[in-house]
Amino acid sequence: MTRVLTISRVTVPPSHEAEYVRTVHLLAELGGQRGRSLWLFRQQGEGGRFIEFSESRTELTHRARASRTDLEQKLEARLRELATYEADAWDLWDEVPPALAAEPDQDG
User: How far does Cα 62 stand from its chain's mean position?
Assistant: First the structure.
């Protein structure tokens, strides 16, 4: 079973950073109860620059596609008011499972 990931680059005005961080962590907690993961990272030396990593087991259960509770919908809408997401923020990335071990090279 492979996983699905989005990598969202986000810019947040300094006046909204604290609320943005609280909102992302609340969404992470709610999503965790539904089998989703959400991690938040801040760029060193660059105020207001963040990356959200959102992961789920399938495309249909991913934050970008799945049905949401009313609270999750409100929190997602609030994030879009607080922050600017880059155009490719919701591109889905599929996990690549390890390839089968190749047979040793017969020429060596």
Answer: 9
pLDDT tens-digit readout, 17-54: 999 999 999 999 999 988 899 999 999 988 899 999 99
CA–CA gap between residue 5 and residue 55 (Å, rounded): 4
Closest of 49, 66, 59, 62 to residue 14, by C-alpha? 49
40 phi, psi to nearest 5 deg? -120, 130
Q: What is the DSSP string of 47-107?
A: TTEEEEEEEESSGGGSTTTS---HHHHHHHHHHHHH-EE-TTTT--EE--PPPPPPPPPTT
